[in-house]
């Protein structure tokens, strides 16, 4: 059964996470299908802009840890080398590939966007957030220093990144806007229309010019060290797995429902 919808309309490819009953938690099937749809959009000359969105109340609760444990077991990923290769491909690798596709991309986010969900939105060029959205990476609670695509410092600045990670609390949509992590905050009931309007505005531009502009900005970030920093942070992330396994039995003890966004610490899946 498909967990990602895909359609192309007026030069915009819309990729939709479609596992709302699980808060769009990312099992292996969803991630592989999501990557396939990104590749499809990248290869289609009729597509000028990619819009990533989600059905349901929440954009994504992050990795589906119960499924992840099963995936690891089936793939014999108890070995450090195998687990490292799997995460390097499915988490960091996918995110880096999406980030560098030479077409503008927009993430439209509502509700919860937790931990592994950041791996999906941060590679996008622009982010439109509904006014009820919130962003969290609570995995330090479990002995890991942050998610695999560790762009926190680039997305929100060093001190705010440390605050999010050290306290396991979340950013509201307005806080994310003030930090420059999202481009626009819109009413929830206008998220679809406003995101599509932005996509159509971009699609009216020249394709080669868009690709050049995106490459210029991304290369500037890489010259400033972003690519190397992400690679280095992934190595740090992997040392955290051993610590978490010893301390908490991660990820087995991390399963559970979304915490209320009104709670003092907004948590969720990694």
UniProtKB/TrEMBL annotation:
Q: Which residues form the signal peptide?
A: none
Pfam families, per database record: ECH_1 (PF00378)
Q: Which Gene3D superfamilies match?
A: 2-enoyl-CoA Hydratase, Chain A, domain 1
Molecular function GO terms recorded:
catalytic activity
InterPro entries, alphabetized: ClpP/crotonase-like_dom_sf, Enoyl-CoA_hydra/iso, Enoyl-CoA_Hydratase/Isomerase
Q: Which GO terms describe its biological process?
A: isoprenoid catabolic process
Query: Transmembrane segments in this chain: where?
Result: none
Q: What family is this? A: Belongs to the enoyl-CoA hydratase/isomerase family.
Which PANTHER family does the protein's record reference?
ENOYL-COA HYDRATASE, POLYKETIDE BIOSYNTHESIS ENOYL-COA HYDRATASE PKSH-RELATED
Protein name according to UniProt: Enoyl-CoA hydratase
